[in-house]
Amino acid sequence: MEQHRTGRPQPRQQPKPPLSAPGTLADATAYPVPARPPRPVPPLVQALRRLPNPRLTGLGAGLFGAATMLALGSLDQLLFDGSAIVYGLLFLPVSALTALWVREADVVIAPIIVPIAFTVGIVPISGGSGGFGGQTMAVVTALAVHAGWLYGGTLVAGVITCVRKLRTMGRRQRRGRTGGPGRRG
Questions:
Q1: How far is 24 from 50, CA to CA, in rounded Å?
Q2: Would you tell me the crossing angle of helices 84-101 and 110-122 to the nearest 10 degrees?
Q3: Can you give the residue ranges of the DUF6542 domain (predicted)?
Q4: Pairwise CA distance, residues 59 & 69, whole Å
Q5: pLDDT tier at 183 (50, 70, 90 boundaries)?
Q6: 121 and 132 in contact (C-beta within 8 Å)?
Q7: Quick one: which of 12, 36, 131, 173 is 20 to 30 A from 66 by CA?
Q8: What single-letter DSSP state applies at residue 81?
Q9: pLDDT at 141 over 90
Q10: Residue, of 21 and 87, whose pLDDT is higher
Q11: Where are the alpha helices (DSSP H) in 2-83?
């Protein structure tokens, strides 16, 4: 009867290279290398590191973007009578935060989420009347008139997404070359 292992397999230890005999060439040429002093970190980088760094799923980032833009659109309607410039200027940082806060596995969804959030948030400031049809036409018209802000925010999210994806691919490539953690065989 076979007995199955009940514990986790332990990682195998690499054999250590043999030490050289005293008085050989390897013993005589070893020089200590002084460590480099750490580079000073700029104050802007220190301030950015103190900011919250949540990692939202694709759905969470979509809800964040839509809820934030709906709240900002409602505030814009109350305080600034639905100013398109104020709404557009508030949309750009929300686009950037959405692209920065989505987790790496879902990073490609950020440029898709951002226009949807813009559409949800423009409903309060579109100014439609006359029922569902009138409100829908007002939203479509507002989207057409304010397409520049929509494209700008989508571009911001797209650029941030591309940079994050390239950095992730570079990290994976470096790990693959060095045989570090995360390499699968």
A1: 52
A2: 150
A3: 55-168
A4: 15
A5: very low
A6: no
A7: 131
A8: S
A9: yes
A10: 87
A11: 25-28, 43-50, 58-80
Closest CA to 90 of 65, 113, 109: 65
d(CA 138, CA 125): 9
Picking from 96, 97, 74, the residue whose alpha carbon sits closest to that of residue 86 is 74
What the block records as the tokens of 5 is 């292992």
Q: What is the pLDDT of residue 54?
A: 83
Question: What is the rounded distance in angstroms from the CA atom of residue 115 to the CA atom of residue 150?
Answer: 6
Work out the number of other CB atoms within 10 angstroms of the CB of residue 158. Answer: 18
- 180, 119 contact by CB (below 8 A): no
Question: Does pTM top 0.90 for this prediction?
Answer: no
Residue 166, strand partner residues? none
What does the alpha-carbon distance between residue 143 and residue 69 come to, in Å, rounded to a whole number? 14
d(CA 130, CA 54): 41
Residues in CB range of 129: below 8 A, 6 or more apart: 135, 138
pLDDT in tens, 25-38: 555 566 777 788 88
pLDDT of residue 175: 84
Is the distance from CB of 82 to CB of 127 less than 8 angstroms? yes
> Torsion-angle region of residue 29: left (phi > 0), alpha (psi -120 to 50) or beta?
alpha
pLDDT of residue 164: 92
